[in-house]
Design brief:
The chain is 71% helix and 2% strand. By secondary structure, the chain is mostly helical. It has one domain.
């Protein structure tokens, strides 16, 4: 059987596992949409004029749509993969997979591709909800920038999840740990504070992590006042750096066996 066919089957299997998990569906689909509905309803029609890096007024609905796309992608990649890998490791699934002819690269690629496909579907859903419910303009000519940002951000968060899952010693701790880290980064990066400039010390810490750069790049793609193609190359470079770091750490530290096994 060709590697491409095996990979396609693995992606299909990983997708079915994700879709059959009510917990994952709530975190990945329901919760981000709920964020958009709540914040969109609260700030409907409001504009802010103190968005960092912008000298013009910007609708809060636009900011929150871009923010929720990022939140959804982080949920579909970092949170979901951390939980899945931690659970499969503790149950011995990864150890059994390791002893099969399935190449490691196929397994990892299938997991990342599944998270990427779900991220794209979720981004379309959130963007559609923002457009229909809150009159948020579609990216239009900035769609390539939004798509590239989405892919790079999803790859970054997925690859970081691989070594991060090793820190989860018990599968029961996977959800609170992954969700807690993500939520902390959302607050730190200003995802829940539309149009508010972060204090310098907070911004300095936020700039270390990928979520802030992901959010800023996505907001540029959604901002109707953006001139040019809408690519934030500096922020995309940081996301790419995190992706490379995650891949290298995974190659060195990823474990297939449960904690305590040799």
């Amino acid at each position: 059987m060709s590697a491409v066919r095996v990979l396609r089957r693995e992606v299909g299997c990983a997708s079915r596992v994700m879709l059959r998990s009510p917990q994952t569906l709530f975190l990945v689909v329901a919760l981000p949409v709920l964020y958009l509905v709540i914040f969109g309803a609260i700030f409907s029609g409001e504009e802010v004029n103190d968005v960092p890096g912008r000298s013009w007024n910007l609708s809060v609905s636009v900011i929150m749509t871009a923010s929720v796309v990022v939140i959804g992608v982080v949920s579909a990649t970092f949170q979901s993969l951390t939980m899945t890998l931690a659970q499969d490791r503790e149950r011995g699934v990864l150890k059994r997979l390791r002893s099969t002819p399935l190449p490691s690269w196929v397994f990892f690629t299938a997991q990342v591709l599944t998270a990427l496909l779900v991220s794209v579907a979720l981004a379309v859903l959130v963007t559609g909800c923002g457009a229909l419910a809150f009159d948020v303009a579609l990216p239009g000519r900035r769609t390539p920038a939004a798509l590239v940002t989405l892919i790079v951000g999803a790859l970054s968060c997925s690859l970081v999840a691989l070594p991060f899952s090793v820190l989860v010693r018990r599968s029961a701790a996977a959800l609170p740990l992954a969700f807690g880290v993500s939520l902390g980064l959302f607050f730190l990066s200003g995802n829940f504070f539309p149009g508010k400039a972060l204090p310098d010390p907070v911004a300095s810490v936020a700039d270390i992590f990928p979520v802030r750069h992901f959010f800023v790049a996505m907001l540029t793609a959604f901002d109707p006042h953006t001139t040019g193609a809408g690519f934030e190359w500096d922020n995309l470079a940081v996301l790419g750096g995190w992706a490379v770091a995650g891949a290298l750490l995974a190659l060195r530290w990823f474990r297939w066996a449960p904690t305590g096994d040799r």
